[in-house]
Amino acid sequence: MILIGLSTFRELLRQKLVHIILFLAGLILAVSFMAGTLSLGEEDRILFHFGFSAVQLALVGISLFVGSITIPREIERQTCLIVLTRPIDRLQFYLGKWLGVAAVNAVIVVSLTLILWFAVGVKDSFWTVSKVGLGIYFESLILLALAFWSSMFLRSAISLFFSMGIFILGHWLNELVYFAEKSKIEINILLSKVIHAIVPQLYRTDWKSFYLLENNLISSTEFLTVTLHAAGWILLLLVLGVWNFRRKDLV
Amino acid sequence: MSTAALSVQHLNKNFSSGLLKPPKNILKDVSFVVPSGSITGFVGVNGAGKTTTIKCLLRFIFPDGNADSKIQFFGESEFTPEVKRRIGYLPERPYLPEQLTAEEFLTLHWKLGGGQKSQMSASDTCLKTLARVNLLGVEKKYLREFSKGMLQRIGLAQALLHRPDLLILDEPMSGLDPDGRRIVKDILKEEQNRGATVFFSSHLLADMDELCSHLAVIDKGSIYFSGAVDDFTRAESKDSVVVYLDRDKTRKQIQVSRNELPAKLQEIFSQQGQLLKVIPTETTIESVFMRREWTAGNSAGRPS
């Protein structure tokens, strides 16, 4: 599994798609430095918000685009077949691939968070800043597991749109419940609550604004709750994905 | 050749072709044996079910679960990691990971196959294997820069890495130039001499003639013939060309079937003709294959 993960990691770092996503993220990061200097007294907030938006774009982009094509492409091009004739299980292959992409995201989030930390003059501890990055990383891992799983039974393009849809919905869940309650229609309220319960609550991982507006207060309880929520979703989606992949005819 | 390296019994596979359509029956009661130490060819026209059969053998596609269906490697029904270690596989038209170099690709497979436990180092083994497929000097080159023929040969190299007991190759000669084909054929013979069993599919029947001791012929998802090549061709080797001088000393040449030969010779002698020679017509896999009327499951025409 580790061997497959390392090989996937190496392959991804050489892929054009990843280079393009990183270039776009770098562009936003550069803009965030410029935008920071244009604002009066809000340099750090602008820099952080834009900067972490760049991190989020890179991680979500890689999770959705790469996640939805990784396994289908392996099947379509038959590259997975020679690997699966080796004494490894489909589970190891699937998790190895997932870990490889997750490792690329980890390298990106750590390096960009370090850049942002230095950019604001190392005012806070790295741990305080990195909580924001971790939130984005958790989100990317959920989306990656979702894209992997959905690509088991959907075509790559549909899997991409499905995962993108969940990403948007996951950030709008509170608004959905709010508007449903405003409508005062029972079925709307019930439906919004069901959706809130069965869709990953990605808005909870978004600490970009929280970090500065709430005066650094991402409490340990909140951090732990979100970590567990993310871990639960990742585990569930990986189990479902492996279950599907182990039963799939690799035609 | 006492035990079979691979034995397949009553393999069936249906593919769903839509909600309202009946499933497509792709493999129908496929049974054949690949004797240990043999080079066995797997022959069939396009769409006959060769690749699907090979994918079922290696559990990439799950066969339908009928009770009497059985796939055994080296006498084992379970497809365990130990069994996998003894198999080398090359898929049809291999698309290999483009972002890896040849050396990285082979090293990965060396390690995945448990190569670290061996006394040989990964780089030594990779270089030796690359030399076998005539690809020395390209180890640092990315696979995306490889030609179709080079990809085919590096694919074969990964199948050979662990000196497998059974090689399963899907169209190993496809996309190769004559030199490449010669290299692959030589390697297959070397592997047989080493004691390995080779099972390969190909459209190039002349190569089958040259290499194979055994044959499995598939048509429309059914096995048409399984056994020794001699048995396949002997049953078809029915014709002979008779050259003789007739009463007027005119040279004549006729083709007669094996059954008709004694009567024809009798007739020539009775008419005071002079027999010059009787030439059995040469029968190759290709000639038998091209002559046969292909009918799924036509066991009546099956050579004995």
Task: Give a brief description.
The complex is a heterodimer of chains A (251) and B (304). By secondary structure, chain A is mainly alpha-helical.
Give a written overview of the molecule.
The complex is a heterodimer of chains A (251) and B (304). Chain A has 251 residues and is an all-alpha fold. Helices cover 81% and strands 0% of the residues of chain A. Chain A is built from eleven helices and no strands. Chain A has helices at 2-13, 16-38, 43-76, 79-84, 90-119, 126-150, 156-171, 173-183, 186-198, 208-213, 220-247. In chain A, helix 1 packs across helix 5 (90-119). The relative contact order of chain A is 0.13. Chain B has 304 residues and is α/β, with parallel strands linked by helices. Among the domains of chain B are: 93-163, no CATH class; 234-291, no CATH class. Chain B has ten helices and twelve strands. In chain B, the strands form three sheets. Chain B has a six-stranded mixed β-sheet with strand order 5-6-7-3-8-9, sandwiched between helices. Chain B has a three-stranded antiparallel β-sheet with strand order 2-1-4, covered by helices on one side. The longest helix of chain B is centred in the middle third of the chain and has 17 residues, at 178-194. Residues 295-304 of chain B have low confidence and may be disordered. At the A-B interface, helix 1 and helix 4 of A face helix 2, strand 5, helix 3 and helix 5 of B.
Helix count of chain B equals 10
* Low-confidence region ranges of chain A: none
The helix/strand class of chain A is mainly alpha
Count the E strands of chain B: 12
Rg of chain A computed from alpha carbons, rounded to a whole number of angstroms? 19 Å
Helix content of chain A: over 70%
Largest sheet of chain A: none
Number of strands of chain A: 0
What Rg of chain B do the Cα atoms give? 24 Å
Q: Biggest interface, and residues per chain? A: A-B, 23 and 33 residues
How are helices and strands ordered from N to C of chain A?
A: HHHHHHHHHHH
Give the helix level of chain B as a range of percent: 25-40%
Main β sheet profile of chain B: 6 strands, mixed
**What is the residue-mean pLDDT of chain A, rounded to a whole number?**
87
Low-confidence stretches of chain B: 295-304
